[in-house]
Amino acid sequence: MTPPHRTAPAPQPAATAAEDGFDDLIHAPVRLRVCAALDTAREIEFGALLTLLDISKSALSKHLSALADAGYVTQRRAVRDTRQRVWLRLTPAGRSAYRGHVAALHRIVGRTGT
Amino acid sequence: METYGSVGRDEASAALASVRDSRRRMAWRGYPGWYWPATGATLGALSYTTGVPGWAALAASVPVAAALVIITLAAGRARGVCEGWTGGAARQRERIVLYGPAALVILAGAAASKFASWPPIAAAVLLFVLFAGTGLALSARAARQ
Predict the structure, then answer these.
(1) Each residue's pLDDT tens digit in chain A (114 positions)?
(2) Do B81 and A112 touch (CB under 8 A)?
(3) Who has the most CB within 10 Å: A13, A103, B96, B123?
(4) What residues are paired with A85 via a beta bridge?
(5) pTM to 2 decimals?
(6) Contact residues, chain B, for A47 at CB < 8 Å
(7) For residue B45, what are the domain limits?
(8) Is B73 a member of any domain?
């Protein structure tokens, strides 16, 4: 499998986030880890993300496609050392949705603890 | 019990734990082997320049600082991570653990060189050992997790 072949600009964000910030699309375990990694950097190369998350190429491609379809992730192709690399980044909408989702998770943990 | 749909406290806690794990991996994994010793040596050289008298200190610190930037960019390329201005994945506490002792050695070395016969090379070597050792230890710990 190869990285998904969608290119920027991203489509409009899908309406998956609830008003309280909880986002069903991001909540899937692998997608949550992908967003958590992407949130800490401007861009991450596809291969680096594979290594960091310890998941298969096909699984990562599938989840990135879902995030790209929602307008949460964009991809950029660049050639380095004669090899084409795919660089991934969260869109502003994706970053906002991810942070809102994490805040919602904190609220669930916090409220149920009291 | 407060939930979102079928998401309860346990699932939310597990999700937050996976977020923390991803952040930790991003912060410390994937660095090329040369990164920590090279950065430690460059910081050591920067510390050494503080012991150089007069304008020579400024002149010497410019190429050393440039080398530090080049090493950081090269490591980012090797890792496949461009942090940009996001601030990176390391927590404040982790940054203090990594850079705090180095900053203390630079300041103490600069002060000691003014008031005592403290050789600048001693601070440079100490800084190299502290920084490279801490960086390698944090990376190794992240790789084991």
Answers:
(1) 445 544 444 444 444 556 588 899 999 999 999 999 999 888 999 999 998 888 899 999 999 999 999 999 999 988 777 788 899 999 999 999 999 999 999 998 886 443
(2) no
(3) B123
(4) A78
(5) 0.77
(6) 80
(7) 9-144
(8) yes
